[in-house]
Amino acid sequence: MRRRILLLLFILAIMLGYSTTADLKNPERAHGHPVYTQEHVDYHIGKYQRLIRQQARTNRVLRRQNHGVLATRIKPWVRLAYCESGNRWHISDANNIHFGGLQFKTKTWLGIGGGVFAPRADLATPIQQVAVAQKLKAKYGKSQWECSF
Questions:
Q1: How far is CA 82 from its chain centroid?
Q2: Are 137 and 131 in contact (CB under 8 A)?
Q3: CB neighbour class for 93 (10 Å; exposed up to 12, middle 13-18, buried from 19)
């Protein structure tokens, strides 16, 4: 985990235009690149750390609930999301009844256990939505979606 964070920090430094660690210590030597404030760098580092923590939390929940989503194929679910929502995982329909890429009703999302990830499907990541969809499909079959697999 520490290696990942250091790697992300290194990549972030390169993305921000710093070519060496000396540039990080002395921003006015950034070789013509824009000079970023420490607050700006800290914000982006915090953003990536939050993403890493969120993914780690998702993986722990998936292992604990034995969804097995990482061992299955995601491609059919992406195809289904294209049909259901145009592969837009963070949307709701016009009437605010169906949410997420796989168009879950909130009652169904919470009833099948999606509440451990987010209160609504559109607030969860695509992997989390697929994990809940697999559980729904195992319990009730493919008939939950208008589009076919």
A1: 17
A2: no
A3: exposed
